[in-house]
Protein: TRAP transporter solute receptor, TAXI family
Amino acid sequence: MIGVVVVLAIIAILVATIGQNVAPPTTQTRTGSTQTAQTQTSQPQQKAPASYSVIIATGGTGGVYYYYGGVVAGMLKNFTNIDATSIQTAASIDNLLLIRDKSDPTKGIYYCATVLPDSAYLAYTGQDSRFKDRRAPIAIMWAMYPNYLHIVTRSDTGIKTVYDLKGKRVSTGAPGSGTEVEALLLLQVLGIDPAKDFSKWERLGAAESANALKDGAIDAYFWSGGLPTSSIVELAAALKQRGGIVLVEVPDDAINAFTQKFPGLATKGVIPKNVYGTDKDVQTLSFWNMFVCHKDMPDELAYQITKTVFEHLDILQKSVAAAKDTTLKNALLYYGGTIPYHPGALRYYKEVGALK
Structure:
């Protein structure tokens, strides 16, 4: 994501933000080493039992997940008695495995996570091989903000729509990433087999894919992320003198086929032309990220987490630009879908009138 320098002083609730991201109040690596000191605040609200420990699994350093989860952990630490921390992870699938395998109700340890809806759906229903025998025991707390499926190519490849990827050299994202999950689901719906229909199938991360496209090693790549994504901004600038980049359209029939096969996972989205300096707005799939927790988290704890976040949305939204879409109106976007909401979170939404 776009590099930023931010000073977040929760005591004065003063946040100076440049770009999308800020340094989170509390963040640890996947192995648990502290990276950023916890800020302090006064005037705590009604506190949850101190015996609870909540660990928020996020994503890679520099990504929105990392900062979003870190700020939420800081809010819980500062405004409640919840022992909250955030950890850096490989994102969605890793996070869902942590919720399943590391939550320990007997010790009051509960994992929460930022995840993509497609990853959550496959893990919850057991359609992902890692969850076939032990499904992800998750419940939704709220919908966060949308990711957009980018399909990036150069102007000289002749690729105009997703169907034109056949016979090309394509990267579908890093192995096990949310990007790869979304790319493969879309290709599956369209009857495109990357192993057979691509002349070369790569599985590269965002930065590696961008460099490969710039160097001519691939013709296109998939990326799922917020707007804008810094590596694509940099790629567009680097290729400007060579005709620039093209974002590949996902047409209506492809979007309709996807939403019918996987109801509730995605909606039609548009990447405006001014985001990356493309010639036109581009239609694609949009996926709303979820904040989830273990389904057996005590109702009172889930209620307290939800209440704390939504009563201090100004901090989250000033700290992380993408969080402007974290609102009470959007929080229940997945209500009534395959994955249930946690009863504790629903209690808060009913209390404030967001859910009748």
Remarks:
- The chain is about 35% helix and 20% strand.
- Residues 7-146+290-351 form a domain with the D-Maltodextrin-Binding Protein; domain 2 fold (CATH 3.40.190.10).
- The chain has two domains: 7-146+290-351, 147-287.
- The chain has a mean pLDDT of 86.
